[in-house]
Amino acid sequence: MSTISPAPGVSRRSIVLIGVAVAAVAVIGLVAALITGNNDKSVATAATVEMGTVAVTGAALADLPETGTDPAIGKKAPAIVGQTFDGSVQRITPGSGPMVVLFVAHWCPHCQREVPRITDWVKAGLANGVALQAVATGTDAKLPNYPPSSWLEGEGWTIPTLADDGETSAAAAYGLTSFPYFVALDSSGKVTARTSGELTEDQFTKLLATTKS
Amino acid sequence: MTIDTVTLFFALLAVALQVAVALTAMACIVPSARRVIVGTLGPVALGLAAAVAIGAMAGSLYLSEVAKFTPCKLCWYQRIAMYPSAILLVIAAFRGDGTVRRHVVPLVSIGAIVSSYHVLLERFPTLESGTCDPTNPCSLIWFQKFGYVTIPVIALTAFVVIVGLLGIHRVGSDLTHQPKAGYP
Fold it and tell me: CA A44 to CA A135: how far, in whole Å?
């Protein structure tokens, strides 16, 4: 059976140690205050629209199921009218040709890894006749890597991008359940494939090909 | 005080503790230095461990309740390990009860394992899944300082420091209670 033993006597050296520890914490606090006090926080310019206004026309697609047959395949995707980051009108119009709509969130680590790859694939001409449209959704100023406009600009993103609203109306209309999210549409505006997660070049190429099948 | 100031403060504290752990571990290789460390830290190790645990608990509550950083599933597991440890260590520090390590060391060791996995997940998000849960993925990095200090890195530091302090307390107690030469 164990017994509780009294703490050994605290020496002068131990008291000095505690004093040094307390002083170190205070100095660290002061340093943190001084450093952040001198920092200029980069913020989006006043003219930038990080969350726009969104109008959805047409029936929303069912949520992407985790497994099994996707009920949205063959269904006409809804049209979306919204704004780009600079405030100009952005339209996602299914039926205007083969199209892939990408949904990304600024704080999502998988999106942060996928966006540079897609940028490279677009530069390499992988899209080849398939229109690419993006939606920056799930935007939240208190989450990391905000604002999305700066993030995408920094990545050299050239795909026309619609800023989703605070209720993520565009994402909901396309049945998003996780990020990054891709919806492939054929020339009549019907869904040919949906998927989420990081894609390889081969998977992305196959997704693009479904729009022309 | 801004959230950025407080998160930088937490990160600096974590780095200072990491440096202290590294220096202490290196010094412990030398027997004479080990005696000095055990003799100095041993008597106050329980109190320091309690202070680290309370600091970690208060920090996590600040991040969730003030900074509004929503804790993910793994964050909650680490909280489950840290919060009871903090209470147990405070009581033990007041009572001078070194036997608390029997309860706290398993708790904080589990916490350290979860923190380590959380750090890995931040570096390699595909370990969890290939997608981000729109609500609150564990791979989300709320802030990162000095290129590597994130919330789970700070938590891991606190867990390791508590284990180390409890170890030093134990060694110190053993030395104190060793029979002196000449005793039967």
Answer: 18
